[in-house]
Amino acid sequence: MADVKVHLAGRSYMVRVDDGLLDDTVVQAGEFIERYHAGGYDSRRKIPFVTDQNAFAHHGEIVAHSLASDGYEIDWFITEPGEGAKSWEVLQELIDWLLERGVERGDTIFALGGGVIGDLTGFAASILKRGCKFVQLPTTLLAQVDSSVGGKTAINVAAGKNLVGAFHQPSLVLADTSALRTLPLRELRCGYAEVIKYGILGDADFFAWCEENGAKVLDHDREAVKYAVTSSIAAKARIVAEDERETSGARALLNLGHTFGHALEAETGYSDRLLHGEAVAMGMVLAARYSAQRGFLSENDAARITSAIAAAGLATEISSLGMTCDGQALADHMLHDKKMDGGTLPFILLRGIGDAFLDREVSLSDVAAFLSEQLAAA
Ligand SMILES: NC(=O)c1ccc[n+]([C@@H]2O[C@H](COP(=O)([O-])OP(=O)(O)OC[C@H]3O[C@@H](n4cnc5c(N)ncnc54)[C@H](O)[C@@H]3O)[C@@H](O)[C@H]2O)c1
Ligand SMILES: O=C(O)C(=O)C[C@@H](O)[C@H](O)[C@H](O)COP(=O)(O)O
Ligand SMILES: [Zn+2]
Question: Per the database record, which ranges form the 3-dehydroquinate synthase C-terminal domain (predicted)?
Fold first, then answer.
C-alpha cells in the first residue's frame, strides 16, 4: 500500500493506492465517513454515490457489499458512460437528485468511476449548498493517475472543453489498482498517455522507465501498474501543492499536450472517435514536433517521444483522424483555452525530455500553419 499526501493549507488529503481497496471500502472510506461525516447521513447511514453504467456494473456490487457490512446503504446516481455526462443536463439532474435526497453541506458525495464521473461529481459538490465534501474512488487508469487528484472539476459546454468548473479538492482518494483489470485496453492506453506525460514534462528517468515498462503496465502487471500509479500521483501532488490554482505557471505544465488535444477533442465532437487520453497523446506529439520546429527540442527527442507513445498503441498522427478542417480551424478552438492571457495563449513546449516550459510568445497563426502541415502529412 502507498499513501501520497497532497499538501494544501487547510485542505490536505490522502491518496491511497493499493489492490483491493474497493473490497475494503468499509474500512477505508467507512472509517473516513465515521470521522468526517458531520451531516445527516451518519444517522440515516445512506450515502450518495455517483457512477456510470460500466463502473457500476463492474464494481458497484463490491462497494455496496463492503459498505452494507458496516450498516451503510448506498443511494446510486448512475449515468450513461462517456464524455456526454460532463454536461449542463446531467449536472442539473445530479444536483436535483442530491437536493431531493436532502444532502447537507457537511455531507460527502462519492464518485465511483473514471475522470468523467470525478469531474462531474466534484463540480456538483463544489456548487451544492456552496460546497460539499466529496471522495474519489477512481476506476480508470486515467482517473487514478490524474483526474482524481488536484481538484480540477468541470463540465464541457458548446464553446469548449472544461469551460465551466471549479477548483474543489476531494477529501480522500482511494485508487484501487485491481479495479483496472476490467478496463478495456483502449481505456488503459488513454490513462497511460497521462502517465508518460509526467515523464515528458518533468522527469526524464520516469520517461525512460515508461519506455522500458510501458508494455507491462498495459498488460496489467501488478507491480508495474502500482509503480506507474504511485509515481504519477506523487508527481501531480508535488505540482498541485506548489500551484493549486494554476497561477504561477507550475501547474500549467500538467497541460502538456492539452492545448492541441482539447482542440482535437472539440473538432471530433467529444465522442468515442477520439477519447481524452488519445487526444493528449497526439497533443504531446504535436507539442514535441512544434518545439523541434521552433528549435527548442532536438529532432531526436521529438522522435523518441513519438516512438514511446506509438509503442503503447496510441495513434500519433492527426492525419489519421479523417478531419476535414484546416489548421486554422483547430487553432480557433484554442481561443477558448483557459490559459488565454491578455489575448495571447501560452503553450507548453519542450527543451528536452523532462524539461517542459511555458512559452508566452507563440503566434497562433504560426501554430495554425504548423497544424495544416501535420494534417497534410501522410
Ligand atoms: N480533473 C482533472 O484533473 C482531469 C485530468 C485528466 C482528465 N480529466 C477528464 O477525465 C475525463 C476522461 O476520464 P477517463 O479516461 O477516465 O474517461 P471515462 O470516465 O469516460 O471512463 C472511460 C470508460 O471506462 C469505463 N470504466 C470506468 N471504470 C471502469 C472499469 N474499472 N472497468 C471497465 N470500464 C470502466 C467508463 O464507463 C467509460 O466508458 C475527460 O473528461 C477529461 O477531461 C480530468
Ligand atoms: O490537473 C491539471 O492541472 C491538468 O491539467 C491535468 C489534465 O490532464 C486534465 O485533462 C485537466 O482537466 C485539463 O485541464 P484544463 O484546465 O485544461 O481544462
Ligand atoms: Zn488530461
Answer: 191-340
pLDDT of residue 29: 64
- Kindly state the DSSP code that residue 57 receives in the 8-state scheme: I
What are the CA-CA distances from residue 107 to residues 11, 110, 130, 174, 298 (Å)?
Answer: 16, 10, 12, 18, 52
pLDDT for res 89: 98
The answer as to CATH 3.40.50.1970 being correct for domain 2-182 is yes
Q: Which ligand is closest in space to the CA of residue 270? A: 1
Gap between the Cα atoms of 378 and 376, Å rounded: 6
pLDDT above 90: percentage of residues in the chain: 87
Taking a C-beta distance cutoff of 8 angstroms, is the pair 244, 273 a contact? no
Predicted confidence band at 43 (pLDDT cuts at 50, 70, 90)?
A: low
Number of H helices, E strands in the chain: 15, 11
User: Residue 41 — pLDDT band, cuts 50, 70, 90?
Assistant: low
Domain ranges of the chain: 2-182, 185-376
40 vs 8: which has the higher pLDDT: 8
> Do 227 and 256 meet the contact criterion of CB atoms below 8 Å apart?
no
Residue with cell 476531494: 170
- Least Cα distance to 278 among 149, 192, 161 occurs for 192
Count of all residues that appear for the chain in the document: 378
CATH fold label, 185-376: Dehydroquinate synthase-like, alpha domain (1.20.1090)
Strands 160-167 and 172-176: unpaired
pLDDT at 39 > cutoff 90 = no
The single residue listed with the C-alpha cell 509515481 is 231
* 44-78 per-position pLDDT tens digit: 578 899 999 999 999 999 999 888 877 888 999 99
Q: Is 86 in the pocket of ligand 2 (CB under 6 A)?
A: no
64 lines ligand 1 (CB under 6 A): no
Q: Please tell me the residue having the least CA distance from ligand 2 atom 6.
A: 254
ipTM of the shown complex? 0.99
**pLDDT on residue 270:** 92
Distance CA 284, CA 292 (A): 12
Q: Report which of 289, 292, 202, 189 is spatially closest to residue 252, judged by C-alpha positions.
A: 202
- 56, 155, 190, 276: residue to mutate for ligand 1 pocket, most atoms within 8 A of CB: 276
- Element containing residue 32 per DSSP (H, E): helix 25-36
